[in-house]
Amino acid sequence: MIMECMTSSHALWETVKEYAASCSWSAGKSLAHDMENHVFSEWERVIVAHNQGEICGYCTVAKRDCIPDIPYTPYIGYMFVGESYRGDRLSQDLILFAMAYLEKIGFKEVYLVSDHENLYEKYGFSVVDRALSPWGSIEKIYHKAI
């Protein structure tokens, strides 16, 4: 399994964009839209896990997530693991890879937004806030020191 940080010039950019657009998670279409419209800037990246060209999962590191007007940054977002790769701790590997990248460029902490129960806590994240999402649900904002 190979993990890489990508910008729009990466050889797998289009492949990951198409994978996200057609994956089983509806937010994948939003990521594909962001990739198509080049919304990632400066240090922001799409992180991909792949095995000999087959996309296994992805996430992003970005300044913002889905909840507007909150002061936290940076975020790990758009976490998705393909169905055939679930149960192998790929989410954990993606989180650790994302955190290593963020630490390398100078960040000391990271956030993520989720409505999952007892998922990110097992990776050492703690809930620091809750906020209303654009689609009307209350989402937890998690924090972890790097």
Task: Please describe the topology of this protein.
Blueprint: E1 2-6, H1 13-22, H2 27-36, E2 45-51, E3 54-62, E4 75-81, H3 90-104, E5 109-114, E6 126-132, E7 138-145
Polypeptide structure, described:
The protein has a four-stranded antiparallel beta sheet, with helices on both faces. It has three helices and seven strands. It is 24% helix and 34% strand. It has one domain: 3-Layer(aba) Sandwich (Aminopeptidase). The mean pLDDT is 94. With 146 residues, the chain is α+β, with helices and mostly antiparallel strands. The longest helix has 15 residues, at 90-104.
Q: Flag low-confidence runs.
A: none
CA-based shape = globular
**DSSP summary: helix tally:** 3
Neighbour order of strands in the largest sheet: 1-2-3-4
Mean pLDDT metric:
94
Number of domains: 1
What is the CA-atom radius of gyration, in angstroms? 14 Å
Number of beta strands: 7
Which tags fit this structure?
146 residues; alpha+beta; Aminopeptidase; four-stranded antiparallel beta sheet; three-stranded antiparallel beta sheet; 7 strands
Brief summary:
The protein has 146 residues and is of the alpha+beta class.
